[in-house]
Task: structure prediction
Amino acid sequence: MKKVLLFGGLLMDRYIVTGRYPRRGEDTLIREEFQQPGGCPFNVAKTLQNLGVEPVIWSALSDDPMGRELRAVLAAEGMSSRAVYPLPGEKTGYCMVVLDREGERTFFTYRGCEGHFDPGRADPALAEEVSAVFVTGIYLLYPGWSGLAVDFLEQLAARGLPVLFDPGPLLGEMDPALLRRMLDLSAILTPNAAEREQIEKALDIPDLPGWGLRHGMRCVLETRGERGAVLYLPEGAVELPPCPARVVDTTGTGDSFAGGLLAGLLCHGDLVRAAREASACGALTAEALGAHRAFGWEEVRARAAQAAATCAAADSPPAGR
Result:
């Protein structure tokens, strides 16, 4: 079984489900509330596990109640804890997720000990066993620790391990120098349209996909929500149609997209096919409440085929012409 090493930290998602998100200073009613394990690496890990790839999450973990619950979930899910190490007395991070009736979510993130980085605390053999690395942008938000993490990631990339970097929505909080180093070491970049614009502005890069390909990236995959995605390759751009979905909750769809992309690449190595399968993973995740759900390759491939058929029908000329 292929293995992927995931950086970004374990934390808890605390959900508030409401009919509408209030304007500033207003009130609204909470319809439902719950919490579940989350954080980008955990969400990516669930998709990888769904598709037969072994996730290995690198994270510090507190001994507080949320930390203990997260450790119990890893054991129950059969996920490796080889790169999870304890930080007694620290606080577990969490993300408040406010979900409205249209399936859109707003986040409030509390940084805890999940961003702590000590390369000596995990099994050194891991670097020899994994086939790829996933990094979420939140890993660049921890003063002191993030620099050590990027040092280590540069060593992994120098060994030839492909690194997928998903920038995330907190680009404005990142040290531009660390962000630039992450781009330099990444083989695959998966921003959404807004994140692409933020990176271009922060680092004075006029054309991020073109810049990335010229600097050795294997691809840049820009997601565009309901408008699908664009896969930028050295040989040109490929437009990817959106996958049909009955949207319930968009939380974790980008993480599932990244997990599906890595799983596809490790399964068959075809970037275009893997990108279409990644879109299907995101669509399937959007149809359930919470940031992750169970599905398999059969569902993924069926949903990707459905998107391709819908796109082909839309491009066909009307009958009689």
In short: The chain has a mean pLDDT of 91. DSSP finds ten helices and 13 strands in the chain. The longest helix spans residues 297-315.
